[in-house]
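Backbones bend. We report:
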Amino acid sequence: MSDLFLRACRREPVERTPIWFMRQAGRSLPEYRKIREKHSLTEICRLPEVCLEVTLQPVRRLGVDAAILFADIMTPLEPMGVSFEIKEHVGPVIHHPIQTADDVARLRLPEWEEALPAMLQAIRLVRRELAGKTPLIGFAGAPFTLASYLIENKPSRDATRTKEMMYRAPEVWHALMDRLADGIRGWLAAQVHAGVQAVQLFDSWVGALSPADYREFVLPYSRRIFEGLAGLGVPRLHFGTGTAMLLPQLREAGADVVGADWRIPLDEAWRRIGHDCAIQGNLDPAVLLGPADRMERAARDVLARAEGRPGHVFNLGHGVLPDTPVANLERLVEVVRNGLR
């Protein structure tokens, strides 16, 4: 098996820096867009064979060093009792936002094999198709990010209502985070039991918080998830955007790999995280919209800042943008494979 990715996550020596992309399954690939002409995102997640195809597309096209299961961070919320729809150009819209302790009490903790059998079957199909050649990553949304969707009703960059609940109704907030942490931990464990070889916790909106608020309102729940997965023997990755000032706290949550976005140089991010932890990142995804030579210089700068130290997984500082030329993704993989030669 090409286990460069797994070895880098464990900070073991590797022959070259492994590379994969967040949101690599979909967005920019024409073969994915062809599938979307027939199926919605939700339908893809409910059809194991289609989910298999979308998950494998970037591995075939780009030659990345890891596959990531095609799913959505909202996937586990429906079995927990949350009614929502994903609106084009908006994102998830919650039909009944969480406002009270009674709302939280209605959230269920399902048996995941019964709740999401299609997703778990897709994992088994992907593992069989990859035949040990490429590792598979599973993922989930982190408690804070999911809580912000549930409270705000839709994506919110400043999380105003979320913070209002944290400050005005901390008992409701902590009850919600407690329920979400248990649900996400169970969902990630189910993915591992189905066959994923690493898991990533996405905290897309946590950059809206100060370090003090993160420590009080978020850290205990992210830590609970990572501690709950510690005995499963797979690398645990943690990623958020806008987290330059939160990187030490993200490390405290207990992941094996901490992702950095593009707003901080990789060497400075690694210093804040600590060199006894692996790092993932951190090329600005918008650079891939520009000319290839500029992208190549930026990628080599990231590699140079890693200094060849064990534990670097090359990735973008967030997900692939929809308008990214596939040729630039292919070229970036080639550049990283060649390293600084």
Observations:
- The chain has a mean pLDDT of 95.
